[in-house]
Design brief:
By secondary structure, this protein is an alpha/beta fold. It has two domains: 7-192, Ribonuclease Z/Hydroxyacylglutathione hydrolase-like (Metallo-beta-lactamase, Chain A, 4-Layer Sandwich); 205-268, Arc Repressor Mutant, subunit A, CATH 1.10.10. It has eight helices and 13 strands. It has helices at 43-55, 70-73, 76-82, 94-97, 165-177, 194-217, 223-230, 239-255, and strands at residues 7-10, 23-29, 32-36, 59-64, 87-90, 104-106, 112-115, 118-124, 133-137, 142-146, 182-185, 259-262, 265-268. The strands form three sheets. Strands 1-2-3-4-5-6 form a six-stranded mixed β-sheet, covered by helices on one side. The protein has a five-stranded mixed β-sheet with strand order 7-8-9-10-11, with no helix packed on it. Strands 12-13 form a two-stranded antiparallel ribbon. Helix 6 (194-217) crosses helix 7 and helix 7 crosses helix 8 (239-255). It starts with 6 loop residues before the first strand and ends in a 5-residue tail after the last strand.
C-alpha cells in the first residue's frame, strides 16, 4: 500500500459561519493529485495548491467536492482556470450545480476514484445538504467528512435549502458503523476519536429534539419563539443557523407524526398531547 499522507490546504475564508475557514485536502500518489473540496478561489489557496503539486512533481487530475455549498464548491471555477486538465466531480444537485461554471461529472454512492495505487470511495451522506458525500479511504479507515461533523461545534441543517435532519442522523449512524479511525472534516480540528464524537452528535440531537418538544408544549408555536427559548443569548451572527436547525427539528417531528404545522404555527400532534 502506498503511504497515505493527506496534505491539508486552508481555503483562507474565515467567517462567523465557517469558523477559521475551510480545509481542503490534497492526495497525491504517483504524481497524480486529487483535491477534496475546492474552497472559494482565494489566491492564497490557489498558491498553496500550486506549491504542493510542484513539490511532489504532481498534476492535479481530480477535484472531488463533498457538497455544493459555496464554501466547498465555488473555488472550482478558479481552480479550473489554473488547472485546465482537472476534472470536477460531485453528487448531482441540479438546483445548485449551475451556479458554478465548471462541467461537473456525476459521482455517487460507492463510486471509486483511483489514482496511482490509492483510491477513495464516495459514500452518500445526505442531511446537511441533499448532495453531501463523505470520501472513505478503506485501508487507513480515514473519512473526509465535509460538513458532516465539526469538532467542538455542531453542524447546521439547512432545512429551508435541502437539509433534512432524519437523513443527517442516518448519515451519522452510517459513519459510526464503518468504525473509522480518523475523520478529516472541512472545518475545525481533525477527529482522532470518531466514535465518541459521533455518539456525542447523536445525543446532542436527541437533547435538542426534547427541547423543541418542550417549547411546543409550553405554547411556543413559531420557529422564532422556539429559537428564542432554546438559544437565549446566542450571538446575532449565529441566529440564522439556529433558526435553520430548529426548523429541521420541527420538520423531523412532523415526519415522525409528533407535530403538525398550519400557516406557520406548530403544535404537538393531538396523538401525543
Amino acid at each position: 500500500m502506498s503511504t497515505f499522507n493527506p496534505i491539508r490546504l486552508e481555503a483562507h475564508n474565515p467567517s462567523p459561519m465557517t469558523g477559521s475557514g475551510n480545509h481542503t485536502y490534497l492526495l497525491i500518489d504517483q504524481r497524480i493529485g486529487v483535491l477534496i473540496d475546492a474552497g472559494v478561489g482565494e489566491p492564497r489557496h490557489l498558491e498553496d495548491l500550486r506549491r504542493a503539486l510542484n513539490a511532489h512533481e504532481a498534476t492535479l487530475r481530480d477535484v472531488l467536492v463533498t457538497h455544493g455549498h459555496p464554501d466547498h464548491a465555488s473555488g472550482a471555477v478558479a481552480i479550473a482556470r489554473e488547472h485546465p486538465e482537472a476534472r470536477f466531480s460531485k453528487f448531482p444537485w441540479p438546483a445548485e450545480d449551475g451556479r458554478f461554471a465548471v462541467s461537473w461529472l456525476p459521482i455517487g454512492e460507492r463510486d471509486r476514484c483511483r489514482f496511482g495505487d490509492t483510491s477513495v470511495v464516495a459514500l452518500h451522506t445526505p442531511g446537511h445538504s441533499p448532495d453531501h458525500l463523505t470520501f472513505w479511504h478503506e485501508e487507513t479507515r480515514t473519512a473526509f467528512t465535509g460538513d458532516l461533523v465539526v469538532q467542538d461545534s455542531s453542524v447546521m441543517i439547512h432545512a429551508t435549502h435541502g437539509g433534512n435532519l432524519s437523513q443527517y442522523l442516518q448519515s451519522l449512524e452510517r459513519l459510526r458503523r464503518l468504525s473509522p479511525r480518523r475523520l478529516l472534516p472541512a472545518h475545525g480540528r481533525d477527529v482522532a476519536e470518531p466514535d465518541g464524537l459521533l455518539r456525542g452528535y447523536l445525543e446532542h440531537r436527541r437533547l435538542r429534539e426534547a427541547q423543541v418538544i418542550g417549547a411546543l408544549k409550553s405554547g411556543r408555536d413559531t420557529v422564532q419563539a422556539i429559537v428564542e427559548s432554546i438559544y437565549d443569548g446566542l450571538a446575532p451572527a449565529l441566529v440564522p443557523a439556529a433558526t435553520e436547525n430548529v426548523h429541521a427539528h420541527l420538520d423531523k417531528l412532523r415526519e415522525d407524526g409528533l407535530a403538525i404545522e398550519t400557516a406557520g404555527r406548530w403544535l404537538i400532534s393531538s396523538d401525543q398531547s
